[in-house]
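Forwarding these from the shared drive since the link keeps breaking.
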Amino acid sequence: MTKNVRVRFAPSPTGPLHIGGVRTALFNYLFAKKHNGEFILRIEDTDQNRYVEGAEQYIIDALNWCKMPFDEGPGKNEKFGPYRQSERKDLYKQYADKLIASGNAYYAFDIPEALDFHRKDHEAKGKTFIYNWHNRLKLSNSLSLSADDVKAKLDAGEDYVIRFKSPQDETLNLKDIIRGDIKIDTNILDDKVLFKSDGMPTYHLANIVDDHLMDITHVIRGEEWLPSLALHYQLYTAFGWKTPEFAHLPLILKPTGKGKLSKRDGDKLGFPVFPLEWKDPKTAEISRGYKEDGYFPEAMVNFLAFLGWNPGTEQEIFNLDELINAFELDRVNKSGARFDPDKTKWFNHHYMQEQDNDDLACALKEERHELYEIDTNYISMVIDLVKERATFVSDFWDLSHFFFKAPTSYDEKATKKAIKEGTADILNQVISIINDTKDFSSENLQTVVKGWITENEIAFGKVMMPLRLALVGALQGPDVFDIMFMIGKNETIKRIENIIKTI
């Protein structure tokens, strides 16, 4: 690449950042870092009617949580600032005027009622109304009106928009890194509005101008912007600017594989579609986030990377540095990527095993106030015993509560299976063995108890099942001797005595 790579993530602050947006940010970030380039955050807030308070900060917080901090953006290393389009609005009008001066754009004075009439008239005839070469000379614009009429309307302060003048009878040959060569017949293109009557540019004009002024070399964005590619190419040509390279990412599909993933799918199937929890400032409605649901950022980044991209190998677990090294845009698929909630849990389970036990112990203490006065080192040791069965921090209590308090009841099915005639006598003998055991390590307990079982030719299940039931309250949990060692001799004997009284 002859020029330093510069990519931008340009979300609109209209609400929480969907994981599809996070995936777009991730692919931009990976590409930039792979080529020692810059990852820029630009806030595209030209549509002030849809602006939502707090959304911009949410976007920044989400990127930081995913460990994808931007190199340039609002309040950070503002080489090409400002990075909010609403703060650049005075800039865009001069570029719209340049397009008018070069004949690539024109003023349109059509009132909404007139356009609505034309749309309905076309619909009644089974047609689609398109404002372009075939009818623009019949409408109210600077192409159909005299220069004096145009000047009079402008001087009178009449509302107008500025439209791009799409060419007639041409074929555009476009290139997309992911989708290859694309041919577009200009006759089917409409004359898009570039500048609105409220004095703000549309996305089309603003993003082209900003990408040029910010030296963006690659535009990596969602598939939904593919229909705009022809206009954007034409705008670069009209300005006489070098066109960046484009790459349009595939959609993230519902778990069924049909249709684009939405918040409704998450609500229906019980998984979040936002990186962080979001509280709507207007309705106070709270939407779940991956962070608050117990996912690690490493897991989220890993599973998002595989939504549309594959490394060409069997490897599935990648940390961020490994993703940067492996990532290439030409390995991104054209077809949509099905979202699999179970696979996201699989990734989280993997990253759970890599977490520091002391950190997990602190996180568990925050969730369970009854552990507040329990020594963190003890909790950390417990976590080490049950960690391989956990996917979320919230799983730890169900997996380990018996390390912290004795069972107050016993699972009914487990009781029928474990408690037989003579069980009380066997457990009393186990108590005697435990009392005589000075070395209460799990290894020694296993040697002593299993040796006694073998020596007396007792079926292992007759001892081990009721012993586990006494300690846990169910036939589950880690190694019985690890449990005995952790809770100590006195507590072990007390629990065995309790179940003897019960049976």
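-- next protein --
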Amino acid sequence: MRPTFLPYNQPEVGEDEWRAVGEAIMSRWITRGRLTQQLEEALADYLGVPEVVGLSSCTAGLHLALMAAGVGPGDEVISTPMTFAASINVIDQVGAKPVLVDVDEDTGNLNLDLVEQAITRRTKAVLPVHYGGHSVDLVRLNRIRDRWGLAIIEDAAHALGSRHDGHLVGSSGNLTAFSFYATKNLTTGEGGALVVPDAAMAERIRALSLHGLSRNAWNRYSEGGDWRYDVMAPGYKYNMTDIEAAMGLTQWAKFEAMQQKRAQLASHYQQRLRLLPVVVPAVRPGFDHAWHLFPIHLRLDVMSKTRDQVIEELRRRNIGTAVHFIPIPHFTYYQRRYGFKPNDFPHAETFYASEISLPLYPSMSFEDVDDVVDALAESVGD
């Protein structure tokens, strides 16, 4: 057994981030400013898109994207039960109705056959989640978008660096929200970004992220700024800060190296897990996985233990894990408000009942992976 606990996740941060954040603080400009703009530009250049807006979270991005797409009371938004609550909360918060459909058994992503069947005259948007770092089939989803005149708002919290048919998630012309939370492949501590398809919409979203003001603080208070401003709409306080962006720019400089390490660790997991009663994450042909998560599925049909018992056995052996996700119909609010029941989505339920997310982050060693697999081999046994 490992002598020390291996946490489920640790951010890849060190002296470079410490130095960058310190320099941002000592510059005396610590809210949204030039560093946030630099991070936005770096992401836009990487994705090949006209605009990226830095925000306080991926959730803020999804909320503002729904508003920018004109989604509101009386509208329906098709989404997935296999996600974190934030993806569905924002639909509820703009006054729309979440319409959930089941997921594919292998990837945990939205089943697009069911998406097409769920479209009604009230459907205004589809909000897919790129589960674990494996992209939804965006080619097909965009055909659905164009056929029905829908907005596609991508929850790409797991998917920075993910590709489909060689195209990066975020580059297909949709409003796409990324997360830079502490556990993500690139972190700013908290934070996120929204890909926006045109400049006019981006300016509106930037205004909404800053109380609806026509000028942000940099435009008002920096040298050459103008103190006058207008309030264009009742907005929110969703902006990214330069302290966060300083960390993000440092992370960005090593993003590709971190992604390569994640892929190497995932490959080592796949090799080592072949003889255990588990199913490793699916990677469909034509897709490049971002490896935010490494979600395995226990072969419960050939085991005497439950998923929860295996998680507890791993914890006793100093291995941290997580579960992604408790499906939305399990939560009291959505049961009461929309009548969702767990058995409404059998694939999501099966996916959830057998899923364990194993540790995966760049500072792990291959020996750490071996420790996880050895502990798992002992935990699944009688």
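The CA atoms of residues 55 and 240 lie 4 Å apart. The chain has two domains: 15-253, 255-380.

- D.
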